[in-house]
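I am still getting used to backbone structure tokens and would like to learn alongside you. Label the sequence line and the structure token line clearly, so we can match residues to local backbone shapes. Go ahead whenever you are ready, and we will take it from there:
>
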Amino acid sequence: MSDTLPDVPATHDTIDGIPAPSANPALFGHPSIRSFLAQAYQSGHMHHALLLEGPQGVGKTTLAFHLAGHMLKHPVQRDAPLELAVPDFSVAPYRQIATGTHLAVLHISRPLDAKTGKFKTGITVDEIRRVTHFLNRTAHDGAWRIVIVDPADDMNRNAANALLKTLEEPPQRTLFILISHSSGRLLPTIRSRCQSIRFEGLERSDLLSALATIGLGAEQMPDTEALVTHADGSVRKAALLVAFGGLEISQTIEAILTKPVFDVPKAQALGTALSGRDSEIQFDLFLEDIFSRIAAKAREAAEKGAVAEANHWSTLWQDMQGEAREADAFNLDRKQSVLIFLDRMHRALRAS
């Protein structure tokens, strides 16, 4: 990447070699959304709270920072262009936005736990209280203030309720941008106070172009078509699949689930491989693959009108999501989780 890109503090979802959304000048896909937001801002019809929802790694947070930079570069709305400004990190305001030092932009995400050296599993109420302090501190200048909550799904209930109070009575010239990878986890009252903008996975050409910008060309992707298929239009997921053996994990899962009899030795071998100290990302890729398969089954059943079957798969998805969060919170044995999830999925497929 360009040497002009600023150094940005790591967040819970930072990937080595990939610029953070706040410091990423490149944005691929979503032309209608970009155009809509630029027009809404220029016309003065921008909603005070935007909910950008869709798969992780498709550009939602990057677009949020592009919009923030655009608004601050063009504070007089009627004079703003109808295309979002491209960040220029050679100038101070954009570098300040990227590094979290701009006085008009607050980025809320999962905080680092000073005791453990790891990022917390959720956004706490103390983080949301920073929003009130931020708004009170900057209210006097009459300039735009932009709060990005990334992702809003990670807020615990106390944090969500605290944010809700601010959303109900938003200060003037304040924009809230909530990022959501799984909007079903948000309070309905928060959703109702936001304008929802749905993002889809990137098209094949946009995905490949985005991967090329981070150094993942054809030579680093020997099986490009398999990668595109498994990435689901997500640059983040594609990068992780390449860097951490995600395709091999998915192929092993497929081999286990398609056999008529549950292959215990193969499942145990996979569980062992994913339970190592340095295998957290691989384990997350395993979970994401399993959940994607369940979600696909639920959509397939819903599309053919099989309501009971769709509900069955949806319930399984919710149950296993809860079990995964519990396993993470209590640091349970990952190998056991792999065996349990594979066995449940295998039995569910045989019963369908």
